[in-house]
Protein 1
Amino acid sequence: MQDFIDPLCVSALNTPAAEASGAVFLRVMKDALFGPVGGSDLLLPRVDLGRLFPEAAVAWLQARGAVLHLGQRITHLSAHIPPATTSDIKWRINHDAEFDAVIWAAYQSNLHLPLDSEYKDAIDFDIYKAIHHWQTRNHALPTRAIATVYTWCEGHTQALLPRAMTALASNAQQPAQFVFDRAYLGGPAGLLAWVVSASEGDSATLERQVIAQAQSQLGLAVRALKTVVEKRATFACVPGLQRPSMHIAPHLWAAGDHISGPYPATLEGAIRNGWAAGGCLGR
Ligand SMILES: Cc1cc2nc3c(=O)[nH]c(=O)nc-3n(C[C@H](O)[C@H](O)[C@H](O)COP(=O)(O)OP(=O)(O)OC[C@H]3O[C@@H](n4cnc5c(N)ncnc54)[C@H](O)[C@@H]3O)c2cc1C
């Protein structure tokens, strides 16, 4: 449990094994170990995630003539329904452009469907209720943090560790489960990234603990450079979780890692939900 299941579970589900959904964990294990060839390969990107996924997607879409409006925050979403029907419903974004359908793919912790103030009175009450129900479920999801402590080791011209990713023995006092040597991943020699899934401490405590962990487990004298704590990095993947559905209201769909599906909050889960929501558009 301590050396294999616990670290695997907390890194895949961002939830400690003692709290985690056994059904989801076993599904991840089954698909990784008994799924298609390559299902259990560990993929470590050498480029940043922006280049890996979103920029590649932008290039793909633009090559097919899609019109993209990047860097624009959606603050308002409102429905316009002709009387007595929902078939011609249009969704208006930021009081401006109207669309036949919308996929809302914003991460759940930011997600306040920003409805117009008059919305409640102006449109079909069933749609209002459906959105309200969906939002309530969305906001009720418990969340967990992930912290990354970046450390520096002076005077090195080569990688510090024998491989890009090293598993560590972790406990409450030695919180990092894995350390990444960035020298293998396009970073400078001497830079290490210590990942603490399901993190609970504040930055100063985590830095102190990781510096001590580096010394005691790897014999490295490091100093902390920067710590990033994503307080609501993912939902807590606990048993019996009621995740929000993909369908919100007529012609309004949701995508993202937190939407109801077989996987925990991972890129795989988000991508699967994105594909599925895209497939709903024509309906
Ligand atoms: C530190 C950390 C490490 C992780 N490590 C891994 C890992 O190793 N493997 C793995 O599979 N997963 C990992 N994850 C989880 C993974 O990042 C998420 O599961 C995935 O990014 C979720 O994708 P998403 O599309 O649902 O949401 P996001 O990636 O959060 O995308 C949502 C987008 O919507 C935008 N947005 C939000 N509100 C608005 C608005 N009002 N208007 C316009 N845009 C808006 C946001 O800016 C964001 O770009 C990690 C997460 C964290 C925080």
Note: The pocket of flavin-adenine dinucleotide is lined by residues 73-74, 105-107, 110, 146, 148, 230, 233-234, 256-257, 265-268, 270 (CB under 6 Å).
Protein 2
Amino acid sequence: MKNRHPIRMCIACRSRYPQNTLIRLKQVAKEIIAFDGTGRSFYLCRECLENPRKVEGLSKRFRQDKEKFVVFLRALATETNPCD
Ligand SMILES: [Zn+2]
């Protein structure tokens, strides 16, 4: 039995990683939220998640309020990996 994860690309740095190491998000109307199983999703790697310049770039790209977006990503990162 293989236990491999598909390789996905981070939208911020375009690096490729196994899917399980990436944060999965989606856009609903004008808001970026955690992927909930439906619709189109995209991925963000942990390096970008922790890179303020990348996060700022993304908040502009998706027209998110920067402060809120930072808080949202931080919460998501913590939630996904509580031991980190
Ligand atoms: Zn990245």
Note: Residues 7-80 form a domain with the Hypothetical Cytosolic Protein; Chain: A; fold (CATH 3.30.1230).
Protein 3
Amino acid sequence: MTKALVLLSGGLDSRLVIKILQEQNIKITALHFLLPFSGCCKPDCVFNFAQLQNVPLKIIDCRKGKNFDEYIKLIKKPKYGYGSGTNPCIDCRIFMLKKAKEFLEKEKTDFIATGEVLGERPMSQYKKAMKLAEKEAGLEGRILRPLSAKLLPETEVERKGLVNRDKLLAISGRSRKEQIALAEKYKISYPSPAGGCLLCEKAFASRLKDLFEYKKKIKPRDIELLKYGRHFRLGKSKIVVGRNKEENQAILKLKNKSDYVFEVPNVGSPITLLQGKITKSAIEIAARITARYSDETSTIVKVCYGKGELNKNIKVVKLDEESLNKIRL
Ligand code: SF4
């Protein structure tokens, strides 16, 4: 029996690939990557889908440990450059394919299948980039893209008769009409494409570049913190300000021992973190920003702060918008 490893991102395209290959009686294992910057599909959502289709699911967690370090290294210096943000899509695909290849060899699986659609994404899903990623990962001819297969050269997989090319598709472009019709045909649910990869967002790119510039050894919690609050850079100090209760809680959870926390007592107030170099002026600015985003109406605002307990306080004037914008990331 032919065995395939399907890269299951969780989105509609990769879900369809499972259904299309199952129709050809191919035994499938799904492989899902947990990446530090993307989360359009929650892990339990992917798990539920795989279970429903009776497909074993393997997870490669790149949000911590060796995989995390490897992934951050490629984001910092991608061989094939960035897309519109800090998204090194070609390098990212190569990274995933290389990991999948290790799995393929270990599990004696015949080929890898992906939900890539020709021309759907500007950077990684055009013919040249697909070929390049295949070559770099040492998987030439062994990657099948069932949704666009008929528009692509015949793969070794098809030549050997492991799949029937006639039953594969010829979808291209960004309109998802055909995929949505197929989802109805197969009666599968899928998450909305919103969310996606933070690396493609321009606002996120400036935060990430700032982190790369000021921190040598990046830890998973540094990346997590980029996802919350307003961020400001003040020389070697960084200030992060929560925008609501959920963000305040998340920011507190991600605090390092050496970080200072700021809060205006007895009124609605953001939680502010001050990281990096702690100077008298950095403390004052962090307090002034906290006051600016608090509900306190007085001109002079008392702000409590400290490393563990908020046992110190400072009286400040709210920071004006122009000064804020100068240091905003
Ligand atoms: S959008 Fe690009 S960088 Fe982000 S996960 Fe997809 S391939 Fe990787």
Note: The chain has a mean pLDDT of 95.
